[in-house]
Amino acid sequence: MTPRRPHLLLLSSLLALTLSFAGCANTNAVAKPANVLAAASANPELSTFSKLIQQAGLQDTLQGNGPVTVFAPSDEAFKALPAATLDKLAKDPARLKAVLGYHVVPGLVKSSDIDSAQPLTTSTGAKMNVAKAGDFVTADDGLVTKADLPASNGVIHVIDRVLTPPKK
Fold first, then answer.
1. Do 153 and 64 meet the contact criterion of CB atoms below 8 Å apart?
2. What is the arithmetic mean of pLDDT over 114-132?
3. In the predicted model, what is the mean pLDDT of residues 42-69?
C-alpha cells in the first residue's frame, strides 16, 4: 500500500460521515407556535370554544397580527352550562359573538402581568375583572386552569367557566 492510500481512505471516510450528519434533522429546533385560533383548535380541551369562535365569525380577530389574549372556556366549562343556554347561544349569532368576544382582550396579558386585581377592556368594550392571589388567577368568576399557552399572535388562558358580559 502506498503512503497516500491511508490518507485517501481517511479523507473519504470523514467526507461520508460529514455528509451523513448534514442530512439529519435538527431535533432541537422549536416550532413556532400557531396563531391563537390554530392553537385553540389544536387543543382538545378547547374544541367547543374553537367551533363556536368560527360560528360567531371571530376567526379574523384570533388569526390577526395581534397581540391578543384569550380567556378560553374549556369544554368542561361549556358542559356545565344548561343545555338550553348553550343551544340558545348557538342559535343567536349576535349574542354568541358578544359572549365570546368578552373572552378576548386586545394586547398581550400573561399571568405574570396580572397584579392583585385589575380591569381589562375586552374586544367588546366591556370591562373584565382579572385578579391574582398567590398562584391563582381569575377572570371575573372563572378560574384560570392553564395559563400562558403561547401563540404566535398572543396567549391563551384556559378557564373553568363561560363568562357572561355585564348588562349594558
1. yes
2. 94
3. 93
Burial of 56 (C-beta count, 10 Å sphere; 0-12/13-18/19+): buried
How many other β-carbons are positioned within 10 Å of the β-carbon of residue 115? 9
80-99 burial by CB neighbour count: b if 16+ within 10 A, else e? ebeeeebeebeeeeeebbbb
The pTM of the full predicted model, rounded to 2 decimals, is 0.80
**E strands within 115-153?**
117-121, 127-133, 136-139, 142-151
Domain extents for the chain? 34-159
pLDDT at site 5 = 59
Q: Determine contact, residues 58/96, Cβ cutoff 8 Å.
A: no
- Cα separation, 19 vs 21, whole angstroms: 5
Among 52, 60, 50, 81, residue whose Cα is nearest residue 156: 50
> Into which CATH architecture does domain 34-159 fall?
Roll (2.30)
